[in-house]
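2024-03-11 09:14:02 DEBUG pipeline.ingest accepted 1 chain
2024-03-11 09:14:02 DEBUG pipeline.ingest length=639
2024-03-11 09:14:03 DEBUG pipeline.predict start
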Amino acid sequence: MNRFLFIPHPMPLESPTSLLIRAAKKNGFLSVRHMSINVLETGATRWLNLRLQSGPLFRLLCTETPDLAEDFRKIFFDQPRQSFSRSTAILVDGNEVPKNSLATIFRPCPQCIKEGYTRSPQDLIFFENCPYHNIPYLTQCPICSARNHWYEINGFTCRCGFNFKDSVDNTTTKPLFFPLTSSFGQNNVTKCFNKHFDDHILRCSFSNCTDHPTLALPAIHSIENLIKEELNTYCKLPLSAFEAPWRRLREEKLRSEILKYVHQFKRNVVECQTANCCSTVRLNFTELRYACHTGRARVRQMIQDGIVETNTTPSSSQIYYSSPNLCAIIQGELTKKTESNVAKIGETIYLNATQTAEILRTTKTSVLKLFNMGFFEGSFISYRTYYMPKSSVENIHSNYITANEIAREYSISSKTITNFLKKLDIYPILESLTHWIPSLYFRSEIYEILTHHPIPTPRTYSYGRPVDEEWLSKKSESLSLDFRTLKDLIRNRFKWRPPYFRLSENQISLIDTWRSCHHSYAEVIGELGITYEIIGSRFQSTNYINTETWGLTNYIHSDDVARMKDHLFRYYSVKQAADALTVTSKTIYLLIEKRALKTGTPLFTRSGQKLIMILKNQKALSPCSLALISPNTPPNSVK
């Protein structure tokens, strides 16, 4: 029996939102939500899944009109990786976008809606203008200013009666707006810009669908004017403080332009206009650390000693730091850092620990261990920095060689080198009494030994990771599982270890047998047309079914799936009954209390909560009987 009287033909590049709205209107339903309640066996489903190929409306449309199934598949969004997270990626016109990018508000393009439908970019929240006509989307009704949800709108008409097809074109592009009044103390400044550029990248991925030029990056004139004003206001504040809020921008071009402008700008004012003007400047921990060019420990010490004051914003939990003489504090820290970074004292040149580690081909921690052992003559510590004479480091490098340097030269691991030299009775000159002592050998002795005893090549295993991955990929396709899920199943359920491609035929048959009678949650949701919440609240919490969890995936046995299907066929929950009669849950409870609705065997959760189940096969559930079973009707008058 067909549940649709008329199914509209998909238009070119039409969005699933537009198709569902047109289908609901043609079949006499008030909205897409009203249509899903009446045509789906499970009643209304989550609006997030109605536009997906895994959703129940898509399967129903393809079942009733198989000739248009391929056209529907091009319109509805695909979700390659099934997941219950709102940020799971979906495919829109072949482009991968997060699932939480789908808009809930009906936002038509005035030009597209005049053609009788809308295109897919209007369903994505990061599009503010139609890429086909360069016109801003209508986010609210021009008459009553109402914001209509796409699954509740009646056709393309607002609740006030305004038809969006009659909307007037507004060819002016909506200007970009960034609510920035100051570079300092703004909560989530970097997050605001990064979010904008992430959306811009997603918009650019759809630029191949239009002949119009791609959307340009926003101009930075407003940012430059803001920085110019602040540079002249806080004229004694070091430039590192102005760089700090803008360093973490992910958009490289804008970040480099802003930092370049900060360095090239010449201040016209040399004295502050007001006393203690820097007291209005607030920096968070990371920005203060960068402004002072110091480490975390020094910033914590400044906070503990009360050098800077701690401030919190009422709107968030973000902590900022300020001081009336912040410019003097930052300048003092920069001066200390400059004076402590001594590279030359008299005629002696010094190297820090990082530079020494690069020369000796070892780690910085190993260099500090050698420093504490007195290995570098004439070394010293200044302002938490270790300095070694360059002549001493070069002398050590010319006489000694580390295992890591040999390993890099021969492209093998350092462990292979040390084991090989131990077999030749060659041991490091320093005994490894503690951790991080580098393996040092005499350079001349090592070169002589390696001349007569070549290093053996590492043994190649008969099985490797690529072979295992190839087998897992093929097997996961045959079992309709993804690569990671199959790997977790074999490791956790069967307790087998790699190499997996060497599994016997008996072991493989065990996997096939187990898989044939177990279904993942995603498969059950797609087969029964229910949601994850229904499985958890109605079946799992009441111990009606037994589930298995292996890795990150939950599985249900085929027998339990059949029981679930039978239970869904025979019973409504209170919420499903309320959706079927388009009433509230409170009304359903009143009807049950007056015995106007017949109930079946209830379910009980683990905590003892009672779940009322309502029989589907009863006349009282027909919409035409709603007037006869109103809550005000006496129980005896209901037949």
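2024-03-11 09:14:41 DEBUG pipeline.report Residues 573-637 form one domain.
2024-03-11 09:14:41 DEBUG pipeline.predict end
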